[in-house]
Design goal:
Blueprint (H helix, E strand, L loop, with lengths): L11 H10 L2 E5 L5 H26 L5 H20 L17 H24 L3 H25 L12 H20 L7 H29 L6 H12 L1 H25 L11 H20 L2 E5 L7
Antiparallel strand pairs: 1-2
């Protein structure tokens, strides 16, 4: 339940009962995580674009718009992540803890990833196609490492709903449901329009399936709680069921829109793949809500403090 102030957590009656027993008081995290939502969403989407560029190259040449789009997505995500820090100007000092901190490793990997994207774009611009192929593969490898590092940074015992493999599955679902349709939308006429829309629909349905599988696996993992923290996590997951439904509904809408555009492509000759921008926008909104739901899963446990009442 949410309290009267709108903050996630347990109701006041339960809180006072726990205080009286001297138990731990469990509350939900209540703060804006917009910068981290943007960072994880945009970087994951860029990995999908990079991955889609490889099969597209086998069919036709890759447009410079694909690495350029990835550069913009990752740059915006990096800026948002730095702004989220309490002291943004000290961001480079985080690299001191590479041996022990996944956050430091994430910063190093995202920097290398952005650099590889920039070199890939430069190789395409000057016409070094063979070098561009290698840089495309390098960027994809770094992008996958980045997604895994982002997920690993949240794998802490204090947050039962973040501790499993579902975090990385949800990020890869974003790569699939946002990145691949974006790559198809910005690839021009590399593929017939009908096939473009069908592939985008398949990618979004695949993303919805992977996201649903991740959440089902998370629910099974915490189905038998043993500690107060795990009980709170299970209650919190049950509270967020409606938000999962909203994510899946939006992904279904985006997929259905792709199917409608595919049907329209059968009768309208001048329809282009740029029409994918609309379902792509719906998919972005869906995964924005998915990332927001992920951060809402956090719970904060603190010892109850008994105070003498006068």
């Amino acid at each position: 339940m949410r309290n009267e102030n709108g903050a996630g957590g347990i109701d006041s009656t339960c809180a006072y009962t726990q205080l009286a027993r001297g138990d731990a008081r469990v509350e939900a995290q209540c703060r804006s995580e917009l910068p981290l939502i943007l960072f994880t969403l945009l970087c994951s989407a860029s990995v999908g674009v990079v991955g889609a560029a490889i099969p597209l190259r086998l069919i036709s040449s890759v447009s410079v718009w694909l690495p350029a789009l990835c550069l913009v997505l990752v740059f915006v995500g990096m800026v948002a992540s730095v702004v989220h820090l309490a002291k943004p100007l000290r961001a480079p000092t985080s690299l001191r803890n590479l041996a022990s901190s996944w956050l430091s490793r994430e910063i190093l990997i995202v920097s290398a990833y952005w650099g590889s994207l920039a070199v890939w774009l430069y190789a395409l611009v000057i016409g070094l196609s063979s070098v561009a192929v290698v840089l495309n593969l390098v960027s994809l490898a770094l992008g996958i490492c980045l997604v895994l590092a982002m997920a690993r940074a949240y794998k802490v015992h204090a947050q039962p709903l973040w501790f499993g493999p579902e975090s990385s599955w949800e990020l890869f679902a974003c790569s699939l449901g946002v990145g691949i349709p974006l790559a198809l939308a910005f690839s021009g006429d590399a593929l017939p329009v009908l096939i473009t829309y069908v592939l985008a629909c398949a990618a979004m349905l695949g993303a919805a399936t992977l996201y649903m599988h991740a959440d089902t696996h998370r629910a099974l993992r915490v189905a038998n709680p043993e500690t107060p923290r795990e009980h709170a996590a299970l209650d919190r997951l049950n509270e967020l069921v409606a938000r999962r439904g909203r994510v899946l509904a939006l992904l279904t809408l985006a997929s259905f829109t792709c199917l409608l555009l595919a049907a329209l492509a059968l009768f309208v000759d001048y329809l282009s793949s740029s029409g994918l921008i609309v379902p792509c926008g719906v998919s972005v909104i869906a995964f924005y809500f998915a990332r927001d739901r992920f951060y809402e899963m956090a719970v904060l446990c603190r010892p109850a403090v008994l105070r003498r009442m006068r």
